[in-house]
Amino acid sequence: MLLALGGLALSYAVYLFCDNSRFHERLSSLPRRAKRIIIMGFDMTLLAAALLATLWVRHDIAWLADTGVGRLFALELLIALPVFMAVGLYRNVVRYMSAGVLIIIASSVTLTLMLLFALTSILEIHPLSTDDLILHWLFALLFIAGSRMLAGEFLRDRMFSGEALECVIIY
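The chain above was modelled as a monomer; its predicted structure follows.
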C-alpha cells in the first residue's frame, strides 16, 4: 500500500516535472499537506529503491527466490514512516532547508535501519547481515539526502531566476 502511494507520488512529481515551465508554480500552489504527502511517498519509494539496490548488489539474483523479501519491504516502510515523522524530517521546507537537515536525515535513516535489523532478527524475516545493513544505510542516505539537496537547489534556482538581485552591504 505504501509502495503504491509512493509510486503515485513519484508519477505525479514526474508529471509536474515534465511541464518544466510551470512546475514551480504548480508545486507552490499545492497545499502544505499535499506537498508533505508527495515528499513522504517519494521518501518511501526511495527507501524501497535503496533496499532493492542493496539486495541486488549484495545477493545478485538470489534474493528473488526468498519469500521473506516482500515482508522485509513492507516492514521497512511501516517502520520508516513513523520514525521519519517522529524525528521531524517533514517539518522542514525543502526550499529553505540548510545543511543541518542532513543530521536529521542521517538520524532517521539510522534509527529506521536499527529497528528494521532488530525486528527482522526477532521475527526471523529475511535476516539482514551487517554488510547488508551498512550498504542499505549508505544507499538510503544517498537517495534521500541527495533527493532533498537536488530539490532544494532546483527550487532555489527557480525562486531567484526571474528576479534581479540587489547588492546590499550589511554593517
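The two ends are 55 Å apart (CA to CA).
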